[in-house]
Amino acid sequence: MGKYILRRLLQQIPIMLGVSILVFSIIQLAPGDPLASYMQNPNMTIAQMEALKEAYGLNASPVQQYFSYMKNALKGEFGYSIQLKQPVSKLIAERLGATFFIAFGSLLISILIAIPVGVISATKQYSFIDYAGTIFALAGISIPIFFFAILMKKWFAIDLRWFPLSGFVSPGKNYVGINMIKDILNHSFLPLIVLGLAGAGSLMRYTRSSMLEVIRQDYVRTARAKGLKERVVIYKHALRNALIPVITLLGFTLPGLFSGAITTEIMFSLPGMGRLQYNAVLHRDYPIMMGTNLFLAIFTLIGNLLADISYAAVDPRIRLD
Amino acid sequence: MENLLEVKDLKTYFYTEDGVVPAVDGVDFELKPGQTLGIVGESGCGKSVTSLSILRLVPNPPGRIVEGEILFEGKDLVQATESEMQHIRGNDIAMIFQEPMTSLNPVFTIGKQIMEAIMLHQNLDKNAAREKCIEMLKLVGIPRAEQAIDEYPHQFSGGMRQRAMIAMALSCNPKLLIADEPTTALDVTIQAQIIELMKDLKDKLNTAIILITHDLGVVAEMCEHVIVMYAGKVVEEADILELYTDPKHPYTVGLMKSKPSLDDNRDRLEVIPGAVPNPLDMPEGCTFHPRCPHAMDICREKQPHLINNEEGRKVRCWLYEKEGEVK
Amino acid sequence: MATVTSNNINSDNRARSSKVESPWKVMLKRLRRNKLAIVGLVVLIIMAVAAIFAPFLTDFGRDETNLARSNAAPDAEYRLGADSLGRDIYTRLLYGARISLTVGFVATGLRIFIGVVLGGVAGYYGKTVDNIIMRIADIVSCLPFLPMAITFVAIRGPSIYNVMLVLAILGWPGIARIVRAEILSLREREFMEAATALGISDFKKITSHLIPNTMASIIVSATTGIADAILTESTLSFLGLGVAPPTPTWGNMLTDANNQFVLQHRWWQWVPPGLVIFIAVLSLNLLGDGLRDALDPRLKQ
Fold first, then answer.
1. What DSSP state is assigned to residue A155?
2. What is the secondary structure of A227-253 as a DSSP string?
3. Name one GO cellular component term (chain A) (predicted).
4. Could you give the CA distance from residue A258 to residue A292 in angstroms, rounded to a whole number?
5. Which residues in chain B are closer than 8 Å to A217, comparing Cβ atoms?
6. Angle B126-139/B158-170 helices, nearest 10 degrees?
7. Are A109 and A116 in contact (CB under 8 A)?
8. What is the DSSP string of B226-243?
9. Cβ pair C23, B282 in contact under 8 A
10. Which bin fits C78, alpha (ψ -120 to 50), beta or left (φ > 0)?
């Protein structure tokens, strides 16, 4: 098992390098000077400009720039934000919490809804629950997250006033302890529901089709032939097998999860990486764009790795390889 | 002796989008305790569906038992509740399947899967069930049973998996064992071993067996009594010796001739011409007539009945039945 | 049964096989029976027709403003009300369909083209070529989709072309994997050996044998791909990074609506575009589902 994890970890390194090269090249495509905002300042002298360029390492060739960027990145330094004049690593660190909270909180909600509904849908195919679940899932897949967010804000924040319209904490209140947690949950309830319900759709459909395939397998018939109760046949023998591909899917949905988290952060003004990135894009703050993309790619890789490990945990056939 | 199992006019139909498939269309047979019955026929003749019907394991939808009785020790399984069936499955009637590679759950150890049945039906605790499981694995000839019990199916070969399936099926001392093509998916040498094992266990445990196969050689080795099925119906029923020495139905005759044998010097095997009829488009009259070398006019028009022509011999063919004569 | 050596059986099988329908016919037959998929298809056709004939379906110009009637509620003149500049929302929905559907179809077409070419090459030639292409596919699928799309569009400038381009560039690995997997399994089969024996060239083999065999999976994947493309386009346009105003798209029509006052008092400015996106994407997904079920032999029983 340890060897397996180590091998998968080593396999991620070239992919990570590839991702960094790709992101770096795309950012390099940017037209114009990253320091354009400085040039609009009439007090800047040419000498100062050159000094700045030197400081940002812009005089070197793109290849040299990449290597020096990566060297610093390994030390945890991702450059300075042009707009916010702060280290990118610090800006990201401040916002990681909110993004993780939204992404994984909503993932948990998705799982808790999708897997039971998916299993019932598959075992009671063509029943009312199956149809209702399928329609709900299709709706979840088909609704744009930003529009879903608008709907939830309209109903639950504006009309019913049950939840705050936006933000992560009540401004100026400085709650501590249990009150702070309550405040954050109150603020993040709508974003979590939006992303959780939207994500439950595809997960539910996948669980359903995986389960439908598994319940036709010979070993499920064997389990029934043993005289096991239907509940045991489904939730022990079938589900354990059906979850194997679902876990793989969870790994693959992580990039989508962060995409959704970003939209949600923007819609509900949450202080996460998505909004950092969005603002960076609006202000052409390339160091931040580079940093956030790289970080999100790393999370995706970690997610894939976690999926691999859980895959091995549920499928004994993997362990020996 | 009292019959252990009586199947009366069993009809199991599949309702597909292309039409109704009468997979089992009025099958009758009976079985005494400790007896071994062979059900023989080409694939698609309904022999597997018959066996699944007995355990009420026909996938529904699309399959459904539409008519008939399955009396097991006098109790009609067709009418039994699901929880009554759960008590019977694996306990009174056990089953082994054709595909040992896919019939074991890949995510549980062999031991866990066998112990599950033992703990369920025999009220043994975990340790006792484990003992019993090891004992069963030894009985079916699995080497190093103490270690093998904690291994996963993928670590077993096909033959070993089928042995494990047999161990699982016999672990609760069933009165009836249904073996659905237990050797078909295995190598020839392994086939012989599994047949030997089953013969051996039959003598030791005196379990009644229904052996479903298309392999007449396997039937000859194990069974006392044989049913030949064609297109969802029983076409011939006889004791094994009689069937071999004097097959009546032209289909049985064809099956015999198409079986290779070391004794004869034929250049090529004879085959039954044609293929099993499309179940959605069964021929009129006797379903075998398009392939039958003796087909007569009446065969194309009317279905023959399963008649008792001699002591214990039943055959469904116009050659042995006069029109208008009722059995 | 024992070895079959008779010629009878072969001729008999041939006679029977004449009754077997072609896979496409079977698929269409099954698809016709799926009511939801047909509803989806009909809705899509209506939307496409409305987009094509937009000028004939409305009396207003696309960007025609009437400040006197800005924010007007729906009435006889403005069937779905007017936006903040007094433009007819119904008209802009029609024209928006042009952009949104075009982006969906073109981006997916491009994505499939890249995916089929790269996946086909990887699957057919195998070894190093396969390795390189599939590692690149791994790398691309690790990129966070929306953040990368935002970055790309921000750098290249918001435009319909850049939206289509980024959807294709980020989306091809999925298609490539499908094509590659199908080709790997197909090339092991006998009819490919027969093709080799007949001296058919590699290129011909790929185009005439393998690609048609992967069509089914590609069509299904394309249908849901168009749905995803429309969703992404609307998100980018909503965020102000997709198609820039005054060109209307369903997404950018919602940009102005995202404030409390509009949400509370002017439903006609945000409900119609949101609903239209939802219905279009839902229809595509229903159709995609129907196609997948129709092509899935496992559901045949």
1. I
2. T--HHHIIIIIIHHHHHHHHHHHHHHH
3. plasma membrane
4. 11
5. 102
6. 130
7. no
8. EEEEETTEEEEEEEHHHH
9. no
10. beta
Give me the residues of chain B with pLDDT under 70, please. Answer: 1, 260-270, 309-312, 322-327
B310: nearest Cα among B256, B248, B250, B253: B248
Cα distance between residue C142 and residue A128, in whole Å? 38
pLDDT tens, position by position, C18-55:
445 666 777 788 788 888 889 999 999 999 999 998 88
Domains, chain B, ranges and CATH? 5-92+174-270 (3.40.50.300), 102-171 (no CATH)
The amino acid at A155: W
Other chains touching C, judged by 3 or more CB pairs under 8 Å: A, B
Mean pLDDT (whole number) for A208-225: 90
Query: Nearest-CA neighbor of C104 among C219, C230, C274?
Result: C230
The span from the CA of B227 to the CA of B212, in Å, is 10
Range A289-306 average pLDDT: 86
Mutate to test the interface with C, among B49, B251, B272, B276 (most CBs of C within 10 A): B272
What gap in Å lies between CA B78 and CA A286, rounded to an integer?
A: 73
Helices assigned H by DSSP within B123-267? 126-139, 145-148, 158-170, 188-205, 216-222, 240-245, 250-257
Q: Which residues contact A305 (CB under 8 A, 6 or more apart)?
A: A5, A8, A9, A12
For an interface test with C, give the residue of B14, B269, B280 to mutate (most C CBs within 10 A). B269
Contact A277 C142 (CB under 8 A): no
Please write the tens of the pLDDT for every residue from C227-254.
999 999 999 999 888 888 788 889 888 8
The whole-angstrom separation of Cα B134 and Cα B142 is 9
Helix B126-139 to helix B110-122 angle (10° resolution) is 120
Look up residue B89 and give its DSSP letter: B
Distance from CA of A14 to the nearest CA of C (A): 9
pLDDT tens across C125-183, in order?
888 999 999 999 989 988 888 888 888 888 888 888 999 999 999 999 988 998 888 77
Which residue type sits at C268? W
Q: How many CA atoms lie within 13 A of A273 on its CB side?
A: 31
Q: Does domain C23-65+79-299 have CATH number 1.10.3720.10?
A: yes
Token couple for C7:
């010629």
Distance CA A114, CA A120 (A): 10
Which residues in chain B are closer than 8 Å to A317, comparing Cβ atoms?
106, 152, 154
Virtual CA dihedral for A266, A267, A272, A278, nearest 10 degrees? 0
> Within 13 Å and on the Cβ side, how many CA atoms surround B288?
30
The CA distances from residue A103 to A163, A293, B5, in Å, are 19, 16, 59
In chain A, what percentage of residues exceed pLDDT 90?
A: 16
What is the per-residue pLDDT across B239-285, written as a single tens digit (0 to 9) for each? 888 888 888 888 888 887 777 665 656 566 667 777 777 777 777 77
Provide the pLDDT for residue C20.
56
- Within 123-152 of A, beta carbons closer than 8 Å to C belong to 138-139, 141-147, 150-151
Q: Chain B partners of A221 at a C-beta cutoff of 8 Å?
A: 57, 97, 103
Could you tell me what percentage of chain B is helix, strand and coil, using 3-state DSSP and rounding each to the nearest 5? 35, 25, 40
Q: What 8-state DSSP symbol labels residue A31?
A: -
The structure tokens 């897997």 sit at A115
Inspect the interface and report whether the beta carbons of A23 and C227 lie closer than 8 Å. Answer: no
Task: Tell if the CB–CB gap between C9 and B273 is shorter than 8 Å.
Answer: yes
B-C contacts (CB, under 8 Å): 35
CA C227, CA B12: separation in Å to the nearest integer? 44
User: Which chain B positions have a beta carbon within 8 Å of A237's beta carbon?
Assistant: 105, 108
